[in-house]
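Folds vary. Our protein:
___
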Amino acid sequence: MIVNDQQTVHDVLAALMELGITTATVIESQGMGKIVSEQMPIFAGFRNLWGGSSSYNSTIFTVLDEDILQETIDLIREVMFEESENPRGVMFTLPVVHFITPAGSNK
């Protein structure tokens, strides 16, 4: 998921921990519109085409078992979209075919 503000990052991480999810990676990120409009002068005039007022975002990755996926989606939806009238980010899921831990076990 991509989260637009730090308070929402804290809310999302707290929600994940509430579900017993204790592993996630948080990466600071920028959207394409921000980079293109600020670092590619030819596109500077299109700055208003890209939505969102946040300069930087946080991208949160976690790998979940299917049995907890829907419950997680429901809770994150509540935290990110139902508690605020302002957009707070986006959430998406991707299938993970292989997940190899440092100990070498496969999932």
Notes: The mean pLDDT is 83. The radius of gyration is 16 Å. Residues 2-90 form a domain with the Alpha-Beta Plaits fold (CATH 3.30.70). Residues 66-82 form the longest helix (17 residues).
